[in-house]
Amino acid sequence: MINIGSYLDLANRAFVIMNLIDRWEKERLKKWSKFIIFILTAQFFLNGIINIKTCAAQKINQGGISDSVQIKKAKSPTGAMLRSLLFPGGGQLYNGKWLKAGLLFVTETGLIVNALYWDHQTKKVANAWDRDFCRNNRNLSIWWLAGVVLLSMGDAYVDAHLANFDVSPDLSKGIWMLEVKSKLVWKR
User: Does pTM surpass 0.85?
Assistant: First the structure.
């Protein structure tokens, strides 16, 4: 089932960010709002299509007792990585890592807002030294954003690969532990 509440929460956060951007540039707000609405709509429909395929693939058990083992479907690492690229924290949301998703959303949107601010300042200042300073800060924000996006894509990819990894406490059975003893002696 599609969780509409989470999309409304994301839309609310996007609206707050767009209001911050509105202080600096009203012209770019129109372009960014269309882009953000497009991304949120695409994410909503992609999640709906995935859920419809999952529901259609499930077999309804008529007898109430299953004669087979239920296997949890593996998450797609590529899907998680692409979601993380398209939407800040999207891959982490797909993997069920809510705290990571929130932190990445705040970090990436903060870097986007910072880059837009310094871009606006670059166009506003008069002398060349200040313009160069603003341009360098804008470029630094963009490089940090690229690094955070690549890190979040890699994290989402690895998390999706390890989603069905067995972490039961009895993993050490059959492994002989090497015991090392040492004694400290003080001589005067």
Answer: no
**C-alpha span between 63 and 98 (Å, rounded):** 36
**All residues at 6 or more sequence positions from 158 whose CB lies less than 8 Å from its CB, including other chains:** 77
Instruction: Spell out where the chain has E strands.
Output: none
Least confident residue range of 22-36, 50-64, 125-139: 50-64
Long-range contacts of 95-98 (CB under 8 A, 24+ apart): 95/156, 95/159, 95/160, 95/163, 97/159
For residue 175 the two structure tokens come to 């492994």
Q: DSSP secondary-structure letter at 163?
A: T
Domain ranges of the chain: 4-54+76-161
Q: Give the number of other Cβ atoms within 10 Å of residue 158's Cβ.
A: 14
Q: CA 121, CA 132: separation in Å to the nearest integer?
A: 10
Distance between CA 136 and CA 132 in Å, rounded?
6
CB atoms within 10 A of CB 52: 11
